[in-house]
Amino acid sequence: MALTPFELVFENGSPVTLRRHALHLDGLLSALCFRHTGCPEKALGILKELLLWNEHGFYHASAMAFGVTPEQTITAQTRHSVGRMRHGTLLHESLLAPIKINRHGENVYRKVNINGGPERNRLNRWNACHSPYLVFHGVGNVDHIEALTSFYCSRIGVNSNAGSGTVRGVYARAIDDDLSCIDGGGGVARNLPVSWLNDNGINIPVARTQYLPVIAPYWSNHNAFKAVEAVPVEKIRRVIFSDR
Questions:
Q1: N or C terminus: fewer CB in 10 A for the chain?
Q2: What is the torsional sign of CA 223, 45, 226, 221?
Q3: How much is the pTM?
Q4: Counting runs of H as helices and runs of E as strands, what totals does the chain give?
């Protein structure tokens, strides 16, 4: 099937919590493909069947935008969840082992000030945003992407297990123009390599460039993570949206 420009829309049911950087569509799809295959390598490989690949080393897949209407805009909120201290990181065995033996032959231990722990709950605080829709743009296989997201994506964003980013519905439609790189207002719609911007005659101040990932995986602990000189997309981006 031919790859066509499309708009992917999630009807949002609860505030969305994001990490430090914007959520990109190819990153979201790679996570959904992993749920489908159970294999990280296969999941990344499937992306080339779903999205248009650019010779500058990225997919034509935008970052998430908050879709607003004349009646509803973006609202900032704070969400709280109860968590627990994780074993193996904060309570490492080396902290609990004796450090010496005193003159009476007794073990001497470190004094550990416990601010949290397996038996003590803690309250996590998350900054979140809410809008009626969450919107992505891309160039790809519209039908397969809609089927994949409809089946596997019930929540979006960080802390989704606690109810953040609830998805009420998903639909996709073909559109005339590719808005995955530059949006309808002329703004950057995703992390874009400087090489792509130069080839397209778009001048960006050097001060705006950073070394960033432009392709899934976007988390630095992954062995396939790669950063290039790029211009970052805004984490909170707005798209004016009308019900269809």
A1: C
A2: negative
A3: 0.81
A4: 5, 14
Map out the domains of the chain as residue ranges.
Answer: 4-79+130-240, 85-120
Token pair for 31: 């996570």
Flag whether pLDDT at 2 surpasses 90: no
User: Hey, what long-range contacts does 159-166 have (CB within 8 A, 24 or more apart)?
Assistant: 159/17, 159/79, 159/81, 159/124, 159/126, 162/79, 162/81, 163/14, 164/14, 164/15, 164/16, 164/17, 164/79, 164/126, 164/128, 165/12, 165/14, 165/15, 165/16, 165/17, 165/134, 166/12, 166/13, 166/14
Residues 44 and 30: beta-carbon distance below 8 Å = yes
Cα 86 to Cα 69: distance, rounded to the nearest angstrom: 41
C-beta of residue 73 within 8 angstroms of C-beta of residue 131: yes
For residue 198, the cross-strand partners are none
Q: 38 — alpha (psi -120 to 50), left (phi > 0) or beta?
A: left
Q: Give the span between the Cα atoms of 193 and 45, in whole angstroms.
A: 21
Q: Which amino acid, one-letter code, is at 234? A: E
* CA-angle at 130, arms to 169 and 210, nearest 5°: 105
Nearest to 150 by CA among 22, 27, 36: 36
Segments in the chain forming alpha helices (H): 25-37, 40-50, 93-96, 142-152, 194-199
